[in-house]
Known about the structure:
The structure holds 2 protein chains of 2 kinds. Chain A is of the alpha+beta class. Chain A is 21% helix and 42% strand. Chain A has 10 helices and 24 strands. In chain A, strands 1, 2, 3, 4, 5, 6 and 7 form a 7-stranded mixed beta sheet that branches. A 6-stranded mixed beta sheet of chain A has the order 11-10-9-14-23-20. In chain A, α3 (114-129) packs parallel to α4 (199-212). Chain A is globular, with a radius of gyration of 23 Å. In chain B, a hairpin with a 2-residue loop joins β17 (373-385) and β18. In chain B, the strands form 4 sheets. In chain B, strands 7, 8, 9, 16, 17, 18, 19, 20, 23 and 24 form a 10-stranded mixed beta sheet that branches. A 6-stranded antiparallel beta sheet of chain B has the order 3-2-1-4-5-6. Chain B starts with a helix and ends with a strand. Chain B has helices at residues 2-12, 69-77, 102-105, 109-126, 189-205, 225-231, 233-237, 242-246, 307-313, 345-350, 402-405; strands at residues 15-31, 34-52, 55-61, 131-147, 152-170, 173-183, 209-210, 215-216, 221-223, 267-269, 292-296, 299-300, 321-322, 330-331, 336-338, 354-362, 373-385, 388-393, 396-401, 409-412, 417-419, 423-425, 428-430, 434-437. Chain B is of the alpha+beta class. At the A-B interface, β1, β2, β3, α2 and α3 of A face β2, β3, α2, β17 and β19 of B. β2 of chain A pairs parallel with β3 (55-61) of chain B.
Amino acid sequence: MKYRDLIDSALKNHGADYCEIRIEETDNSRLTYRGKSLDTIAQTSGLGGNVRAVTKGGWGFASFNSLEDLESKVSDAVDQSKAVGTRKTEIGDGQAHVDVVPAHIVNDPKVVSLEEKKRLFDHYNDLVWSVDGINSADIIYGDTSRKTFFGNSDGSYIEQEQVHVISRISAQARRGSDVQQAGFSIGSQGDYHLVKDLDEQVIDAAKRAVGLLDAKPLQGGERTVILDPVLAGVFVHEAFGHLSEGDNVYENDKLKEIMYMGRKFGGKHLNFTDGASIPGLRGSFKYDDEGTPATRTPLVREGELVGRLHSRETAAKLGEQPTGNARAIGYNFPPIVRMTNTIIEPGDATLDDLLEGVEDGVYVRNWYGGMTQHEMFTFSSGEAYMIRNGEIQEAVRPVMLTGNLFETLQNLDGIGNDLDMNQGGGCGKGGQSPLPVSNGSPHIRIQNCLISGA
Amino acid sequence: MSESLIQAASSRFDQAEVYRIESESHPVSFESNKLKEIMRRDTSGVALRVIDDGRIGFSSTTDASREEELVDRVGSLAPFGSEAAFSFPAPAEYPTVDIYDPAVTRISQQEMIDVGQSLVEKLLDEWPDLLCDARLGWSSGRGRILNSAGIDVEYDQTGYYCYVGAQLIRGTDMLNVWSGYGSSHHFGDDELDRLLQNVRRSLRWSDNLAKASANSGDLPVIFTPRGVGATLIAPLLSGFSGKNVANGSSPLIDRWGEKVMDERISVYDDPLIDGASGSRPFDDEGVASQRMALIDNGIAGGPLLDLQTAGQLGKKSTGAAGRGLASTPSPGTSVIDIAGGDSDFETMISGIKEGLIVEELLGAGQGNELGGDFRANVSLGYKIENGEVVGRVKDTMISGNVYEVLDKVESLSSSPEWVFGSLRTPAIQCLGVEVAAKSE
């Protein structure tokens, strides 16, 4: 219990309604390739912490890299909270948890030498370049160990360690001034073997990039689209997940009226869930960054809103239970409501069932990015293919899909039975990016989705 | 300490460089019309970069107790590092630029609370249904660079910023508008009023909803200064990145000195503008800053280069190296300055029979920008009909290529505006933007 005494002693007589201290130690390894060869190799380490305090509903926050004189950081944060607070503090009744949670490790990246990692990624870089027509490779490998030491005025003291492995491999092809790229992103908690045996995927990405030079752009407009599990995962994250975050709603009466429990968002086949207690995924953990135990929260059941994601404050203000979704990307940020592992629960259809009857549509796979602003969302596919008469046909240039949450969920009319998870992404919100999350789904079908081509 | 670190590294490796930063920042935030949180951040850290046997080793830490490990760590990394195409530079003359305002360090918590409060109240006066957020803060910091070629330089800078935003919900129609500004210097009512004017104009223009019609490029589009920043800057600047030039991804590679767009377009990277966010006397490798013409009357100038990319291309660094603590430097922009034109902004609008105004995008940057392509959902945009703004458009996407669009410029406004603090640009009206919209 490395910092327990330090934290306990600093929190004595804090003077706020509630106070917490979080200290973090991090270690990172990173390899990047741009162009023909290795661009950078880096190993970095970090130490930092913060104090967060609330008094009469007002918050104070102080972050630092030096752990000296923690008491004065506590008084800074408490003074700030007192300068802000004019109402009542509402954070619910905290429960004290004392726990040490080791990292979820399957194959520890720390025991693999940097030399071996470099050899492996040199090999992937060579593979990209072995494909005719390639102009550049863009490869990132990273592994991170993050240890957090958390104590609060409720009596909690929790140590947790997380180890993450991520990689993004992308190939570029060029013809004149036309530059196209294709790639994939993967991630895992604690499993270095995620990045072994990627040869086939790497060559496929390189070939796709070259193929895109000949692929035609699709004309923008409304289409029937079928999304693969990975892109459908990004869809549920962007289209629904962000609006489920309690901090959008808790002080916003109009949004509360719109996001009322029981509201029908779509057909009975719609079931969405988010939870960090789903084990072994990138968004999994035992306690969130306020010391609340992780849960598995049903958000939509049979098309109706049944739940939200919360921090202690958003839960208390809405009269709901905390869900363990308060997360901070690092010590220099306060925790805010974030997603963890977000899922569209599987249905009964096969991909063929979904394709049936689609005369002129688009099959979209893989992801490039996604973004949300209230009820509007966009997400970009890594790959796109025409569907004609129920068959997936030639590749077209990747598309961006956009929509309005309310309409689009009504138009989601098919859910497959093949749930799969996308673990290669990071979520951004409030300047805290990329936060490890996962999202997943089976294949899904959406009617009348607005698409923009090249 | 930095001196002992550079000495230890220089005696063990062929060349070495130490980069140390320290800063404090004081953010204040308002949420849903009320003061919500006061914060303070103190950060410090150091990075060590060495060149040994022609290879680069790099490590950094924010843990003062582990600084001594850095020398051993880079020692174990350098043999596997990338090949260095440069040597650390010797001391040189640096230009002066004003980026430190002592008045910023004297900004009190109460002053920031009062400024935020006043902005919120002024907006609520006119639109009582708004939910306003505001974020403001001041910061001060110091960066120091030492290297084995004798450089030992540091600069102090301050920063002050203010964002104000408002959300309006009517039924399931949601509107979010914001405006913001940052500078190294303290600013007051003039700039704050400008922020309010921007928010008020967006609210007024959004009073009605309008329909955009699908179009394949014949519809004139006016990008406001914010719209220029949101749509055109990133796809344009990716062609100037030294890394993209060095690895062959830039569409400008064989086109330096050629006309690549309308001759009324001139784009500068200028780190020597006093008071601008991003200005600095030298870059993060200690190379002197300079004002660079990226596009000079439509002609492509040259790429932004740091030491490594310059070496790879057989050129000299342009002083464009930027870095955080966690990674090695890479070439980037400092402050972007785009020349204005002849037209009055109101006249630009009144001269359009049917067109679009673009302010903000959702999802920009999530496609293939390397060739200059852009596409995104127009999260804040307006329809022009018969010379007037008739309402806000939604469920509308735009796409196009920045080289094509800036070759079809119809007019530029005459008074460039700061978009936040690191981009100054006029409004630009052009053709060639493809519009996709949801049908009824």
